Amino acid sequence: MKLPRIAIPPAIGRLLKFWPLAAALVVLALFPHIGGGFYVDLVLTTMILAIFALSLELLVGGTGLVSFGHAAFFGIAAYATVLLSAKTDAPSLAWLLPPVLAIAAIAACVIGALCLRTRGIYFIMVTLAFAQMTYFVFHDTSLAGGSDGLYLYAKPRLAIGDVTLLDLGRPMTLYYATLGCLVVVYALLALIGRARFGQALAGIKSNEQRMRASGFSTYPYKLAAFTLAGALAGVAGFLHAVKDGFVNPEILAWHQSGAVLLTLILGGIGTLRGPVLGAFVFVLLKEVFQSEAVFGAFARHWQLPLGLAIIACVALMPNGVVALPARFRRLRMPIPHAG
Amino acid sequence: MDLAVFLVQCLNAIQYGLLLFLVASGLTLIFGILGIINLAHGSFYMIGAYLAYALAPWAAANVGGGFFVALGIGIVLSIAFGYVLEWAFVSYLYEREHLQQVLMTYGLILVLEELRSILAGDDVHGVAPPAWLAGTVPLGGVMTYAVYRLFMSGVCMAVALALYLVITRTRVGMAIRAGASNREMVQALGIDIRLLYRIVFAGGVALAVFAGMIAAPASSVYPGMGNQVLILSFVVVVIGGIGSVRGALTASLLVGFVDTFGKVFMPQIAGLLVYVLMAAILLWRPEGLFRTA
Question: The complex's ipTM?
């Protein structure tokens, strides 16, 4: 049966394209009222990972730079959050967040300036090596508690006078603040994708030689993307530190960089919903593999099924979850009649 | 610092650098010729150490040889392992992007690391060196130096020399060098490039496993020992230049000296010095010291 065609005004048609996004937003906003505490916490973790993965998407999907050291900026921001917080009073959000992001951005700018002198396989290795260097800075020196890590004594809040506007110590507030950050980062990256800056990055991704030939100095563009990605990873790092109230060198370890890259490829590169979907898939996979109810005593070795899942994912769906509907559609397509 | 201490530290640096070279040379060959970024290379080193730990008692009980029989069995096993691994996982990555190679080999790390945990547990183990290498030699009156460490340096040098001869003087080496510079042309000349790739990968795995095996008696055998070596090998490859075995040798020794003397003079920041060195080289020559192409 053929449905009658209804003429939709183009403006509304364009808006209708966003309904999955809007629906997802509504579900996320309502979730704390439906789900139990454990699941709310899980979704919070997922949203932080989604912000982290989105920041990497700007580099990998947007600019074609595969960074294997992105956890460095996440970790630097998390450490900065703890180190800049006072031990007694709840720190003010307005005085804490900007310097934390600035520190992450400066670190990304310095490391990026060096890493971007290389390309391809070199770039992957050099980013990994510098991330490992920051790991050793926090792990070996007494700068920030060494391998034991540090505690965040009081969670930041935003207050005007005596009126507290935001208290990130309250789980609900932190949840909505994180959701807000996710929306802002998503919107920012969507805007960048449409702006001249994002177009230039896309050009660098598809053919850097040609971009240079047509008069673009590509290095500053790449450095700007790297710095911005570092700052956005800093947002995720800040939220992580506030959520856990604890940082240790493991958050800068290369497993984190690997996990966020995996999140990205699980979801699919080149779109913004990919990283967000990937974060949900990744956290779910990890939760299932770690669950003793499903795997029993074997749950201790959860990295084995995770590793196999990664290998299967690379082999079977190189374009991520985002590409799955198109894949199924292709399978379901009727075979045209011969003759 | 008096002369004897200095000498001991020099020997340590050389031994460390040469060991690093064994791992890094396989890595740089796999990068340079196959174009594959292989994160699992550190795991092969770890496997080597655990093989030494598992095989040495077994070989002593069943075959009647000690450490060296275990070494021989280990090499044969590692070549077979590398061959199968290339066939099963790596062979269809050649046409893929770096990102997918990174993820595939990252998945392999997780799998190998967990298999190690299931099969051998998470404890720290030691491996006894062969009896006739267990002693020490006196050095300048009060200092002594372990014979096994001297032996390690000697073996590493022999392997480095053999590698050099294979690459520069044999037909396979010629094909490898040709394959590194132009893949299609080598194929057009009738050389089976897939077989060549398989050989190079298996050889690289064998080098890393071998390094792990001979390192086992000198250091302890512990979980995650491959990661540190992997990252340092990356640094070596970046400093030396991708695909250059000569560069890998120079860079390994450089890293060995910087790390060893860093630990003596500046123990607080010793872990960082190697990366500072890498940053300096990147500023000076982003393509590495010996990159020609």
Answer: 0.80
